[in-house]
Amino acid sequence: MRLFSFKGSDGRNGVGALLKEGADTFINLCATDPSIPNSLQEIIQSTAHLDRARLALGNSSAIKENINSITFKSPIENPGKIVCMGLNYADHAKEGGNARPEYPSFFMRGPSSLTAHLSPIVRPKVSDKLDYEAELAFVVGKKARHLTLENALDCVAGYSIFNDGSIRDYQRKTNQWTIGKNFDQTGAFGPWLVTPDELPPGCNGLTIQSRLNGQVMQNANTKDFLWGVAETIVLITECMTLEPGDVVITGTPAGVGYARTPPVFMKPGDICEIEIESIGVLRNSIADE
User: Would you put residue 213 in left (φ > 0), alpha (ψ -120 to 50) or beta?
Assistant: First the structure.
């Protein structure tokens, strides 16, 4: 299933299920079955709710709506944790002047840094060095601690797309990256959550690409991860408990703007698209604060 959070033209929040990728029509799950919560975070925690969503998707009397009539919200609006990886592609580590790492870099984002599909990524007043980063995201559906390579993927509720918008001068003001990664509305997330049954295990072997105003800036494949999704979960859960609704961002490949000559940063009026094979396209305009 391809599940997404939205606000309807009537102002109500809901959860939709896309009939198929590229289609304009979706099933309004909450209108079709009022027992389905209007929170995707709540749905993914319950096998019963997921089963109801599948039944609603196959219901011949399901309530169908046009996707152009709604406003997308981030799939998970208020995750308890947003755990981000850095330097998970050797080529990106190299372009940043780093050797192939022995351990990934981890940092956290806060929910206020998120923005949804088709909503603007905001360039802050204090900097013009807003960079793009194409990344695979996954959302946790089950409480997870001390997982192994054999059972790690069992905790994944679904996969999505993330643009880890980074304020590069602030990122480099300290040895920790957190401040440059948490400006309001810089992390684009969406458009939907794709359940694992529709994708290869751990999303291995999928093309990932960023485009700025139609020009390809990053073009890679998730098979080039230094740490795959299962390995990432093992590393994180040996340190902390992952809980339902937590989001993990898996790192970006080479081709980011700051490493180019001359550097390329996003500016108001630009359109940035992140595409991951079999998941979809996350599209955002850029606006000034």
Answer: left
CA distance 44 to 143: 12
Q: Would you say 199 and 156 are in contact if contact means Cβ atoms under 8 Å apart?
A: no
Q: Is the peptide bond before 262 cis (omega within 30 degrees of 0)?
A: yes
Tell me the C-alpha distance between 96 and 274, whole Å: 21
Q: Is the pLDDT of residue 104 over 80?
A: yes
Domains of the chain in sequence order: 2-72 (no CATH), 82-288 (3.90.850.10)
Kindly state the tokens that stand for 167: 């304020």
Q: Are strands 207-212 and 121-123 parallel, antiparallel or unpaired?
A: unpaired
pLDDT tens digits, 138-161: 999 999 999 999 999 999 999 999
The DSSP line for 158-218 is EEEEEEE-EEHHHHTSSSS-GGGG-STT-EEEEEEEE-GGGS-GGGTT-EEEEEETTEEEE
Exposed e or buried b per residue across 120-143, where buried means at least 16 C-beta atoms within 10 angstroms of its C-beta:
bbbbbeebebbbbbbbbbbbbbee
- 241 φ/ψ sector (left φ>0, alpha ψ -120 to 50, else beta): beta
Nearest to residue 162, comparing CAs of 188, 183, 195, 180? 188
Distance of alpha carbon 125 from alpha carbon 118, whole angstroms? 21
Q: How much is the pTM?
A: 0.95
